[in-house]
Amino acid sequence: MLEVISKETGNKEMVINMGPQHPSTHGVLRLELVLDGEIITKVRPNIGYLHRCFEKYAEQMDDYAKVIPYTDRMDYVSAINQEHGYVIALERMLELEVPERVEYIRVIMAEMQRIASHLLGIGAFGLDLGAFSPFLYLFTEREKILDIFERVTGARLLYNYFAVAGLMRDVHPEFKTDTAEFVKTFRPKIKELNDLLSYNKIFIKRTANIGVLPEKVALNYAASGPVLRGSGVEWDLRKNDPYSIYDKFDFEIPVGTGEVGTLGDCWDRYMVRVKEMEQSLRIIEQALDGMPDEGDVMEAIPKRIRPKEGEIYVRTETPRGELGYYIISDKSASPFRVKARAPSFVHLSMLPAISKGSLIADMVAIVGSIDIVLGEVDR
Amino acid sequence: MMQPEEIFEYVKEEFGEEGFSFSSGDIGDSWIQVEAGMIKTVSKFLRDDPKMRFNTLMCLSGVHYPKEEELGVTYNLHSTELKQTVALKVRVPIENPNVPSIEAIWKTADWHEREAYDMVGLIFEDHPNHKRILLPDDWEGHPLRKDYVQQDFYRGITTGA
Fold this sequence. Notes:
The complex is a heterodimer. Chain A is α+β, with helices and mostly antiparallel strands. Chain A folds into two domains: 2-46, no CATH class; 54-377, Cytochrome-c3 Hydrogenase, chain B. Chain A is built from 15 helices and nine strands. Chain A has helices at 54-59, 68-72, 79-94, 100-128, 132-153, 175-198, 201-207, 215-220, 225-230, 237-240, 266-290, 343-349, 351-355, 360-369, 374-378; strands at 2-5, 12-18, 30-36, 39-46, 162-163, 166-167, 310-318, 321-329, 337-341. In chain A, helix 4 runs antiparallel to helix 11, helix 4 packs antiparallel against helix 14 (360-369) and helix 6 (175-198) runs antiparallel to helix 11 (266-290). Chain B is α/β, with parallel strands linked by helices. Chain B has a single domain, classed as NADH:ubiquinone oxidoreductase Nqo5 subunit (Beta Polymerase, domain 2, 2-Layer Sandwich). Chain B is built from three helices and ten strands. Chain B has helices at 4-15, 39-48, 109-120, and strands at 20-24, 27-28, 30-34, 56-65, 70-78, 85-93, 98-100, 123-125, 153-154, 157-158. The N and C termini of chain B lie far apart (50 Å). Classes of the chains: A alpha+beta, B alpha/beta. The A-B interface holds A 47-48, 51, 53, 55-56, 59, 92-93, 95, 217, 219-222, 233, 235, 240, 307-313, 315, 322, 324, 326, 328-329, 337, 339, 341, 345-346, 348-350, 353, 378-379 and B 24-29, 31, 55-59, 61, 63, 74, 76, 80, 83, 87, 106-108, 110-111, 119, 133-136, 143-144.
């Protein structure tokens, strides 16, 4: 701890470290908090503890396809969505057609992953604020998704399942019935969650009117995903810049309304995630209906990936927001440059702007509400 | 909604021919190359002009071009109001890699520019907090340069190279 006299106010200020090892930083993140009493006057996030040179490795793989397992390890709680963006970028560079069955399976997997990721995000958010039981209930549900994923991909967390213009293997014969069963049992649980946590008085007290992010600031900081939608902006890449086959499905974009407090507060961001799970269920149901039963998921996978010279920026909607891949090809076997624009990285840079002037106890709520994954921040 | 070519023509009308060029690869996106000294003025124009309205900077990436001995910055812009997208590029010589910071125009550039400094060694003039972001402050070299050699020891600890 360090005490200094502030030049501006003449008050005694204290600098304390939150993290790097702290249960509420969701990984290894260090926040330097400058405090005037209990009020935060400045926040300096320090990152890089999980830096694993993803971009450097990508340049040295000698094969575009070998980068896919590395993308899994960026946002390790929504690995499917990370792969999805990368393979779409390559498909656009190579101008490949993706078989219909593959697209349907991908959408189902991506939406299931979105639910699993939100369950973790919401559960951990409640846990940060002292609500232990919702976390356990939500993990029971997440477990069911992971069980389905385990049967499909062979892994529970890092899947390496999507391939360029295909999938690594076909789904098991009971995939459709398993998923439909999950959708059926999960839907009532959302109401249960609302009764247990969303409209809980203490929870609302801890999250309403806290960490308010106005629309203008959100756009200037290029916020995306639930963080941007929590501020009332109807913006979802699945609708606004459709990729894959998302234009075939009927779903809504939930936005924050300031229902229990101010528009763009922690509760709004939280509620957008809850409502999004319902929309994901709708997409999964429609995709299950439309999914063709026959078709080889591996036939279109190219033997050799050598894009022509050029560059591309492709963005997709992950549970945390806009994930962009900026890829430059120089006609060689490995990419000349891969930059991953991670939503958590952008959202974390916003933290000093939205937490200034709040109480130290609310810092935990604000960090939890932007739902960062440090693997993606540091890459 | 304007296509990148039309945006290029529009920008040329405002600033004149000099310092701008339009190019694209065999595949993928096209981009407008801008002279480094003008990037801040051009960015401000792109953000505020009623026909441009690029209110978000989606991505900012630093690139090392070893053949030309140059460093580059790519800015991917998007307008959520007019639904248009454009990419800007700046190239600077590696001995003098100075680019004006656009942090004052899009706040999100703050961390992206720090990352570009950290990884490829670009220097952003007038950046409010020009420090490394992912690596420790006393790390040597910039890892995403193509000729980067990892240091053997960091503060007496082997780096496993």
